[in-house]
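Recap for those who missed Tuesday's class. We walked through two folding examples back to back. For each one, the amino acid string is listed first and its predicted structure tokens come directly after. Nothing is annotated here on purpose, so try labeling regions yourself before you check the end of the notes.
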Amino acid sequence: MSRLASLLKHPLRELQSEVDEVVSPGRYTLLRRKIICIMVAASLIPLSVMAVLNYYEHQNAMAREIQNPLRVLVNKTKNSFELFLAERTSTVSLIASAYTHAELADQNKLARIFAVMQKEFEGFVDLGLIDADGNQINYVGPYSLKGKNYAEQRWFQEVRLKGKYVSDVFMGFRKFPHVIIAVQHTTEDGRTWILRATLDTRQFERIIASMSLEPDADAFLVNTEGLLQTNSNNYGKVLEKMALPLPPQTFEPTVLLTTDPKGREIFLSYAYFPEADFVLMAVKPKASVLKTWYTVRGDLLFVFLLGVAAVLLAAMGVTNALIRRMKEAEDRRELALREVEHSQKLSSIGRLAAGVAHEVNNPLAIINEKTGLMKDILTMQQTDFPKKEKLLAQVESVLRAVERCRGITHRMLGFARRMDVTSEELDLGELIAETASFLANEAMHRKVEVRLDIDPELPRIVSDRSQLQQVFLNLFNNALAAVADGGRIEAIARPKDDGVVVTVRDNGCGMSEETLNHIFEPFFTTKKGTGTGLGLSITYGIVKRLGGEIAVESTQGVGSTLTITLPKGQREALA
């Protein structure tokens, strides 16, 4: 209250102090720092997140591009292994079918056959004929294995069931790593025998060497139990347990990103053999694969830092321009605050009008009483006298004039009481009609049609009479100023849900879209030199304070429509 009283007594001084406080250089410096910090944070946080995401996405993309050649290499090498095994298996199968049991049981003939096999196909170590009971009845090779019985060996059982068998690498009787190929043959008379050949695993090493891997890469064969079938540079020797865990089974070449026992991140490419107990694996360290990416990373960091510097410079430039415009806006605001002083003067005039109306009512009451007494005396006079009727007519004229003056002062008092916030039950249609009568003389003089369309079923509402009167007076004044002579103004009131809707429509000059965006802003006016720009701003504030809504539609050259929605009951905003 003391602040308000001081503002009322010394408006210019108080408003100037407000402006000086806002535009002080220290506050602008702090504001500049805050804006720069916010702009830099808003720019750099998304930029940093994007840089990190791009970093990992590009890294992953490069990894995928590197994985494809590794997958292709494993697939080609796997095909070479399968072709090698299939060729050797077909050779043994052809011999078992082309020669009789007697021929294969002949030592000399079996030796000639084996000599041809070794000449045409590398890798064969020996060749043996085994009967249905597992006894090796003939053998050609560097070992003394004739007469050995294999009935209890797993491979013997496998070949008896499947007809063909390719083993994984094992030691056996030969005491060196080898692979066997066994083919079962059955004659027309039901006699069965097995032709068994041994392969040297050095052929496997040659196939892996043909992959031409880098020095830090590795490739090897394992079986499905995790035993190495060939030597590995990093994970063990042949027939040792592989240091890596077996990957999930798949017959198509697959690449996994995993960590080896040494803690290195590696790309593991592998494929299972469908017809043999082998898994081909190729390993490449991730660090060597992404060596090119690491060299590019420094350039990307430089570009990122350059972008950060650009953001900082842009933020400082934009902030300086913004602060400069804010200073200019504060200068305009100072002028606007002076306009507030003018509106305070208008408010004082309103209070003065209320005092004048109150003082005028006293002599009017005396005139009304005396004139009424005169009328009663003349009416009660039993005898007539000359010009009595004319005198009575003059008395009636005085009474009508007094009644008219009472109506004027009553309306002045109702308008002046707008500063007091009170609520009462009121007839909104009557209030609209009363407010419209304030403009009756000007409308009649300019031949402007003012049409009121009030629904007879319009409900009574609880609101502030004087403030609503000010709202409608502002709307009627604006409409009257917008229409040309001979124009039309309509006020329509209808019930709606739990309230009422009042529409004030005119066929005046209308407003542009740019004007519509600013009509509720304080001190915005299109009446250059005559308007204060406070009418619709005050109207908007009153309607919101009374719990209502206000909307505007306008077309330039056609007219404007303002719609106000008010609740039936009292809202908290009214208190």
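Example two. Treat it independently of the first, because the proteins are unrelated.
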Amino acid sequence: MTRAADCEWGAFSDEGPWTLERDRIRWLPLAERLRAAARAEVPSLTKPTKIPPGVRVISVVRTLGGALLPWVIRKRRKRFASSEASRADVSLRLRKAAERLGPTYIKLGQIISSGEGLFPPELVTEFKLCRDQVPAEPFETVRQVVESDLGARLEDVFSTFETTPLAAASIAQVHAATLRSGEEVVVKVQRAAVDRLVHKDLRVMSWIAPFLVGRIPIASLANPPALVELFAETIVEELDFRMEAANMVDIAAMLTELGQTGYVVPRPHPTLVTRRVLVMERLRGFNFDDVAGMKNAGIDTKAVVRTAMVALMEGAMVYGVFHGDLHGGNLFVLPDGRTALLDFGIVGRLSEERRLAFLRMMVGAIANDVKGQMAAMRDLGALPPDTDLDAVIRDLRLDQPPVDPTSLTGEELIAEVQRVVKALLGYGARMPKELMLYVKNMVFLDGAIARLAPDLDLLAEIATISMMFTERHGERLGKELGIDPNSVQIDMDGVKASFGVDSRTDQLTYSDLQARRRTIQKRMRDQVGR
């Protein structure tokens, strides 16, 4: 079988419905200018104003206030049996309010829903419901958007176009269709007027956020204004599908340059891409959660997880580009075991300075170089430029032998978490967009290991991946960091310490790690419930 010509430079399916020629894609040269314009817009959208920004703020405040006031009253009257019950109640109320407020708030909820470990579990659980409960736009509205953007009647471009969407999300929905020339495609169509609504809502969020500081338990290190800023940086780039299509091409090319053969990116159409419409190749496979189906088809689910971990790290460390929104709905596994990546609206792009900082952070983690990691975190923007790193290390007790968290009581665990969070906030710590996206992806992959490879030996896997990185990229990365790559040795005792186990541990499966986590969580819940 002859592979399509564009497989020489991009991670595409072997036999595509069309062949992409990068220098002849008419929308591709626009992407960088559009991306720069979107980034430049964020400061004005997120700058708090003294005067309420327009009429929209009235409905938002009324909806949020109506949702939260009963919770505030019950909390003040101590009507909740536990803090868990309180968080569950406020999370439910916030989710329902987001659904009433529409696409922008639903999108924020969807991002939070992928942040297990970054946000309270009750909030994550509630907002996961936002993924499946977004009503579709009426088909006539979809038709109007498609015909307006493509400049032709639907029937002149497509021989079939399914009126019921395959999926409906906050910003857009996708429909199966067939081009007049016979190719099966998926058509992503932006919701009508969502661009204008998002811009209004970001201004409203930025006005409301300062009033929520310290009042609602949203996240440990992302106070409401910081969360709005991160959200704005993310969502503004999703409002023009020409940027998303360019992301598809860039990541497909990056995966091929890395020699990553385990991923496939659907081809965007070379001419049928506009601000609000994206026509792409249709791919089919197993849902990422269909473990039984994959195993019955002879697919190595451990290899699927390993591919995901390596590609994410390589993309960030070597090229500074990675898919920024991994979750079950954005991935499926082809019958040949390769993973199809979908939805490129959110992509992490590290500047060269930040890519090198990220690289230093990862090398520091492998070598257990604590100060090197802290310096890299500072250069990534997670700490202010003038931060006294030695003081941070002392205050966080990173210069002391690690303590096995399962050896602590619930009271000690809570006190330790509070101490660390207070110290970080005192130093002005924040979560830069790119780091937030990367951590969110790692959290997703953490859950994927639980489903696809629970008996994976994490210690052996880390050692194997580290050696592979050194072999494949050691010379290049050594030059970039000005170090001898052979001098960087993985400190397995430090790796073990990061998991909270002592140096005598020879094996740590994911099931073992989950058991440890359950022990820690139960002790903390029991302590809070007293």
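Answers for example two:
DSSP finds 20 helices and twelve strands in the chain.
The two ends are 66 Å apart (CA to CA).
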